[in-house]
Amino acid sequence: MTAAVVEARGLSKSYGTRPAVVDLSFTVAPGECLGLLGPNGAGKSTTIKMLLGLALPSAGTLSVLGMPMTPRTAGAIKARLGVVQQDDSLDPDLTVEMNLLVYASYFGIGRAEAARRADVLISAAELGDYRHAPIRTLSGGMRRRLMLGRALINEPALLVLDEPTTGLDPQARRLVWERVRARKRSGTTILLTTHYMEEAAQLCDRLIIIDQGRILAEGRAPELIAERVGTEVVEVYVPEDDHPEPIVARLAGGPWRLERAGQTVYLYLRDVDAATTLPWLGGLEYSRRRATLEDVFLTLTGHTLRD
With CB atoms 3.0 to 4.6 Å apart as the test, which of 151, 201, 240, 241 could cross-link to 221 if both were Cys? Predict the structure, then answer.
């Protein structure tokens, strides 16, 4: 049996008396893309910090690339990682090419080999016309593509993507997706955090949803949707000047699971014939659609706004 690239057992982390991660246990298999999902403050960033050796667990064990993550082994593990952080960490005083060459030197990659790899990565990021451009002249999408390229300069065994497409327009986001898919096809193991549910469904082989530092659900996107939500969702819109309680009471006995968020009532249907729902919905403003991963996320973590 092939060893897991990442193996966490009972992983916990507290800051003073505040628990950030509580008893997390999960694995990432070789060549797998695992998505780590959760609202702000759920514990995703703390988990990533422990995986990168930037924070020590308060309890539990963590193994990365076959080595226990400790202060003594952190350097050897980091040498085999590629990381795209949330924040832009490119050197604004260097050109596109020099950002890659300087970063390659941190891994002891010779200049000729670094130049060869930089050529490939610049081409893959569609930045050939900007090879000698300073970073400050690039758009946000160009910078994110370059950060992904830089994370690949050492040909990592494990690629960690921490919200890699935040703030990108759809065209730039889909180009990043294609680069990630290319790494998956080459066998690179990937750990991805994202707030974009479509991104998670498109790229990840398996998902873990966490909140308040604990795992709420784990599985493949289609399975989670089927198990946690159903097949379809009806959204019933209550006018702002009306009270939703009478509509909630009217719909409560229907062939669905019901949730309310503000002036919207969500009806989660599991293999219910459309004709069955029509008598219940007469006179109401509503829309009906297929269930998605976002419905799973909101069902598990709540509809209320997080800071």
Answer: 201
**Percent of all residues in the chain with a pLDDT value above 90, rounded to a whole number:** 83
pLDDT tens by residue, 221-253: 999 999 999 999 999 999 998 999 999 999 998
Whole-number Å distance between alpha carbons of 184 and 6: 16
What are the pLDDT digits (tens) for 131-188? 999 999 999 889 999 999 999 999 999 999 999 998 888 888 998 899 999 999 999 9
| Predicted local confidence at residue 271, as pLDDT | 83
Q: Which amino acid is at 279?
A: P
